[in-house]
Amino acid sequence: MFKYRLLVHSASQVVTVRNDAKIIAARGQEMRHVDIVEGTEQCGVSVLIDSNGKIAFVGLDTDVAFEFPDVHKEVERTIDARGKSIVPGLVDAHTHPVWVGDRVHEFAMKLAGATYMEVHAAGGGIHYTVEKTRNASEEELYCSLVERLYSMLSTGTTCVECKSGYGLDVDTEIKMLSVIEKARKEVPISISCTYCGAHAVPKGKTSQEATDDVIKHQIPKIRELMSKEELHVDNIDVFCEKGVFDVNQSRRILQAGKDAGMNLNFHGDELSPLDGAKMGAELGALAISHLEEISDSGIDAMTKAGSVGVVLPTTAYILRLTPPPVRKMIESGMAVALGSDFNPNAYCMSMPMVMHLACVIFRMSMPEALVAATLNSAAALGRSGDLGTLSVGKCGDMVIINAPRWEHLVYQFGCHNETISSVIRNGDVVHDAGQCCG
């Protein structure tokens, strides 16, 4: 039995993001910098992972040899990272990965000028995917989810938020949550599970009827399965939007989820300025996503409440929306996180591409983007106590980059297949560019 699971040595630099494991989020100007252990021409940097998958040491090769003199006899695996850099495993704070039936045909409609809600009103969008997903078997949904999760791993994501939301009825929502539950146990990626039964108003129902169904039927059934430990649901989501669920309906749904033990992590102020962010902050939301139309009062409320703002550059890109006021959000002191928003409408699961788009579209710096894709995205899921930084005591999740400086992960747009050498989760290699690990 080995005392240590993995030693990565000789790296040019290791970006811990924060050396202090007690820091649970970076807010405002704190996002401007990342902590880095730099190597020298004579000495590289090491990361040592213990047998429990936790970080035991980060520092110069000479220091690890001094503090752990027998480490090469006690470690199960070593990786020579000479000429390479290391960052924490990326955390994708917002995805919709459980569905069948792509919507490639809608891309042409959008390119021709159709808005998101026009596609939705024409029977496309969420409702199209709902029909396909309701008719799919659990096995079909599971196989497609697993394939997507391994693709995410290959791009450096070691923790991902996974939503339901393409069922809109209790049976299909539970089918989706069950698929996520199975993947949590069988795929080497950390999953934060989100119930999103209020993703849209089902055909044949009013928004009020849909609200009542979620509160009176869906949440109680999910809560029952959670009490039996058949499901583990971390968060509740609602699409708080004009023509979907209004602020009062969203408040009722979120409160019911909170009463059932779920964190509040929802869609707010995406297409219309409804002050959903302000409402969420009042309820103590852990995180609120999109925020393209957030008001100044909403920014102030989220900042004071400590709610994380999850911004999604792929959505602004694909829908040609006015970007959220990210610079104002950061300058206000808000903790800003990133998510891919992977779904049939925005088909991107690469967090390096998301970081690049965030820098270009949202005018974030590269350090801000990395903080938003690691520490703050983990905070948006309530997981920054064990994920998001390469700090001693946290999970040994990291990405080894084929370049001496970490910025290449962001700079080389769309080139993660070349820039990522290995992806490590809990000290285990779960993706290696040189071979198949999945």
TrEMBL record:
Keywords: Histidine metabolism, Hydrolase, Iron, Metal-binding, Zinc. Its EC number is 3.5.2.7. Pathway: Amino-acid degradation; L-histidine degradation into L-glutamate; N-formimidoyl-L-glutamate from L-histidine: step 3/3. Residues 86-430 form the Amidohydrolase-related domain. The keyword tRNA-binding does not apply. GO terms for cellular component: cytoplasm. Transmembrane segments: none annotated. GO terms for biological process: L-histidine catabolic process to glutamate and formamide. Belongs to the metallo-dependent hydrolases superfamily. HutI family. This is Probable imidazolonepropionase. It comes from Pinctada imbricata (Atlantic pearl-oyster).
